[in-house]
Amino acid sequence: MLKQPAAYEQQIAKLREHGCEITDEALCKEILSRVSYYRLSAYFLTFRNKDGTYTQGTDLSKIYRLYEFDRKLRNLIFSVLEELEVYLRAQFSYHHSLKYGADGYRDATNFSARHDHANFIERIGDLVKSAEKLPFVKHHIKTYNGQFPLWVIVELFTFGMLSYFYADMISADQKKLAYGTFNSSVSKVKSWLYCCANLRNICAHSRRLYNSVFTVVPANMPKVDKSSERKLFAALMAARALYPSTEKWNNEFLSAMSALFDEYSDAIILRHIGFPEDWKTIMRK
Questions:
Q1: pTM recorded for the entire structure
Q2: Which domain, by its residues, includes 162?
Q3: Each residue of 3-27: pLDDT tens digit?
Q4: Which residues contact 52 (CB under 8 A, 6 or more apart)?
Q5: 198 lies in a domain?
Q6: Following DSSP, what letter does each residue of 206-218 receive, concatenated?
Q7: Do 106 and 147 touch, CB atoms closer than 8 A?
Q8: 120 assigned to some structural domain
Q9: Closest CA to 238 of 166, 176, 182, 173
């Protein structure tokens, strides 16, 4: 049987019953109305005892600070992944279309044997249908009978589809991009793309980063130990490996993240996101 809904007063009573210290009920009710009990409860996991109660000193203000830290960190990371996504669209479409032509992506022979071309074309059709009211989509439907050059259709690709696109390229094309653009091996690039696609989805759907265990592990990531490989730190190292601008990564992203960590230093524990103490040195490009 499903749990029954509870009024804010009942939710507050339940938090207190578990050992959460609440000094301002009005503020607590406001937080619960904005965030929801269920979403906020995930941030209590760090402080939960085996019997379901919270460790002594667990108060709502600290939990809410963790939530706010996570929200701001997620937004910061999402902006980096957005830039990376645009960069990948540009790189993949340029290299593929220059070799195979504007609509070469519609020819199955321009991909590896493992490529499911029927599914790929179907997914593109779904993307076009869902975006048919966008001006550039309407223009190509009207003017070119629904035909799109790769550098146009790629604007509809999700990060996951970009990862899929690279994974299904012919080996020679993968190598050219891996070594020429990312200065790495094909296997590493495929893994890092998949990892970044997963991180992007977590951020886009407002899922928790703090003290979260990731299901996707980046392959052969130097300076990431076993204890951190399923934490945020490892995923960000994958983004670092693919991100195109050293200057922006170091001077904008790392600086902003460092400032955020300093702002919430009273609430966060670095190991809960897999960050070593010398993370600033390790993460510089």
A1: 0.94
A2: 69-283
A3: 899 999 999 999 999 999 999 999 9
A4: 18
A5: yes
A6: T---TT---S---
A7: no
A8: yes
A9: 182
